[in-house]
């Protein structure tokens, strides 16, 4: 993380910034797509970390200079495992290869994300899926879109008819969190129609925003895997909170995003 930035007056509108941010994540995604196809073999944690870093570096070589030009005084966060509140001012929260381990295993669920956060509130985000060519965008107060088409969360009103999803916040998670995740999956297997479990979180949240699935939850978490999706879901008419139904912030210990009609039921299920 770079040093605390000074708040600056925007030189361009947030709508203009969003268009340029979307172009930046598409460029980075194209570079990662060229590296995709064969399973990358590794025999140790060190080899795995080097392979992950090579993907990150490829995307960041394109993302960082383009986003820095857009907001020269904004801070920069690229560690996808960082959590908690940010200092005041503007920050770029970037995941250069969201779902990086999937990329290494030749699995299709990965993306490039960039979110501008202003005084701890996400104001715009762009999420690009290079293998499908889809780009999800959201602008605070102006809605969420998929390639320019407005997104809306599902109108589901019954958890028993819902597809729900969860994700793993990070490797080597605390045992208490692991047990809580396991208990929540068991509860949702009893209450929901279908439960999906996979990484990364951002793609589940994009599906919530698009109305394809009805709820997503996660215990623990990081800014880079929750902020983009939180803005997408909110701007698509969904509700976000922690798992107990309280206001969510990047410092919260849990996260829930759901269609409004099942949010309360999901809170009850996750509280058991």
Helix-strand layout with pairing:
Layout: H1 14-34, H2 45-70, E1 75-77, E2 90-98, H3 100-104, E3 111-118, E4 121-129, E5 134-139, E6 143-146, E7 149-150, E8 163-166, H4 175-191, E9 194-197, H5 201-209, E10 215-219, H6 223-235, E11 239-241, E12 254-258, H7 260-270
Helix pairs in contact: 1-2, 5-6
Walk me through what this model shows.
Helix content is 38%, strand content 23%. The strands form two sheets. A seven-stranded mixed beta sheet has the order 1-2-3-4-5-6-7. A five-stranded mixed beta sheet has the order 9-8-10-12-11, sandwiched between helices. The chain has helices spanning 14-34, 45-70, 100-104, 175-191, 201-209, 223-235, 260-270; strands at residues 75-77, 90-98, 111-118, 121-129, 134-139, 143-146, 149-150, 163-166, 194-197, 215-219, 239-241, 254-258. Helix 1 runs antiparallel to helix 2 (45-70) and helix 5 packs parallel to helix 6 (223-235). Residues 1-11 have low confidence and may be disordered. The protein contains seven helices and twelve strands. It is an alpha+beta fold and 272 residues long. Pfam families: Inositol_P. This is 3'(2'),5'-bisphosphate nucleotidase CysQ.
């Amino acid at each position: 993380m770079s040093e605390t930035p000074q708040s600056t007056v925007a030189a361009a509108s947030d709508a203009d910034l969003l268009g340029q941010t979307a172009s930046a994540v598409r460029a980075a995604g194209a570079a990662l797509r060229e590296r995709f196809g064969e399973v990358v073999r590794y025999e140790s944690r060190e080899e795995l970390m080097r392979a992950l870093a090579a993907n990150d570096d490829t995307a960041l070589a394109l993302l960082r200079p383009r986003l820095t030009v857009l907001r020269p005084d904004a801070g920069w966060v690229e560690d996808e495992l960082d959590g908690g509140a940010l200092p005041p001012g503007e920050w770029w929260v970037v995941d250069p290869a969201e779902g990086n381990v999937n990329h290494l295993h030749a699995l299709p669920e990965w993306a490039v994300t960039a979110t501008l956060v202003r005084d701890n509130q996400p104001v715009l985000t762009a999420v690009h899926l290079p293998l499908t060519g889809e780009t999800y965008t959201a602008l605070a107060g102006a809605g969420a879109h998929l390639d320019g088409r407005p997104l809306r969360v599902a109108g589901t009103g019954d958890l028993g008819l819902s597809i729900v999803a969860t994700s793993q916040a990070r490797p080597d998670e605390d045992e208490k969190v692991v047990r809580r995740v396991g208990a929540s999956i068991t509860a949702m297997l009893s209450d929901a129609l279908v439960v999906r479990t996979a990484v990364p979180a951002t793609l589940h949240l994009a599906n919530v925003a698009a109305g394809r699935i009805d709820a997503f939850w996660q215990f623990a978490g990081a800014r880079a895997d929750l902020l983009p999706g939180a803005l997408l879901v909110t701007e698509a008419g969904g509700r976000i909170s922690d798992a107990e139904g309280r206001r969510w912030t990047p410092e919260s210990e849990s996260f829930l995003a759901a269609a409004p009609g099942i949010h309360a039921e999901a809170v009850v299920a996750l509280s058991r």
